[in-house]
Amino acid sequence: MWRELYLGQGLDDPRVCVGEDGVARPGPLVEWRKELQGVIRARTVVGDVTKLRSCWEGERVLRTLMKLVSYVRPWRMEKVVAGRRDSRERSKNLEWMNEKLQQSGGGGGGFLDRVGEKVRSSAGARQLVARLHTYYGMTERDGDEGEIARSRAFVYWLRNYRAENEYGPFEEDGRVDWVHVRAIHHVVSRHLVGLEEEEEEGGFPMRMCATQICLPREGEEEMEDWAGVTGSWNVSFCFCDHRELLSE
Fold first, then answer.
1. What is the DSSP secondary-structure string of the chain?
2. Cα–Cα nearest to 20, from 67, 83, 82, 61
3. What is the pLDDT of residues 176-205, one digit of tens each?
4. Cβ atoms 115, 59 nearer than 8 A
């Protein structure tokens, strides 16, 4: 019963999902009741952040959302024709997440912005908010000049690049600093959105749909370039325009 109720939410079947490394979810069994309760509570909070009872619950909800984004049904290369992926193979988890965040208002930023204020006392929760925001992509609020100024200030402040964090967006223990990555994503996204004359099919490419993993055809794991990464690439360089600093 719990399995049917979970699958009735319009989500990927966890039994066929894989993580970002292509490995299936850990554990032999799916706790359908626990998974369903987590999803329902997360959906409720995304729709109305005021129903969040505590910072601790906020972190739990964010972990549930990140689990849905991180473990999805993969594409198979046989579903990719002429460089275009079969829309029927798109992850239901990612579509569900995109829809719920959109419904929260602010171009998806309604929940992301408000929950960030609710959990700002938790460093772990702040990292989760930044990671989900990075995966989701640009929101309406990201278009504000004040927001891009803050992201640029973070990205171009040299004190954020030290030997302790390997001069990159990392914590001192080697983990990814998603607050830093989100700021970088924001700066690069604004640069690309301003320069792109035509967006790729499906919209701006640096967003959640691009997180769905693609696996090789059955028996072709050793095939050279099975992921199709060779060919022409676009490279964009984003530098701080000193004229904007002089005009302030």
1. -HHHHHHTTS---GGG-B-TTSPBPSSSS--HHHHHHHHHHHHHHHH-GGG---HHHHHHHHHHHHHHHHSBPPEEGGGEETTEE-GGGS-HHHHHHHHHHHHTSGGGHHHHHHHHHHTTT-HHHHHHHHHHHHHH---SGGGSHHHHHHHHHHHH-GGG--GGGTTSSB-TTS-B-HHHHHHHHHHHHHHHHHH-SSPPTTS-SSSGGGGS-EEPPTT-TTSTTTT---S----------HHHHHH-
2. 67
3. 999 999 999 999 888 777 554 444 444 466
4. no
pLDDT score for 168: 92
Q: Confirm if 148 and 177 have CB atoms less than 8 A apart.
A: no
**What local confidence, expressed as pLDDT, does residue 86 receive?**
58
Using 70 as the pLDDT threshold, list the residues of the chain that sit under it. Answer: 25-28, 77-88, 194-205, 217-228, 240-248
Per-residue pLDDT, 139: 87
Give the global pTM: 0.83
Q: What is the dihedral sign for C-alpha 229, 233, 237, 238?
A: negative
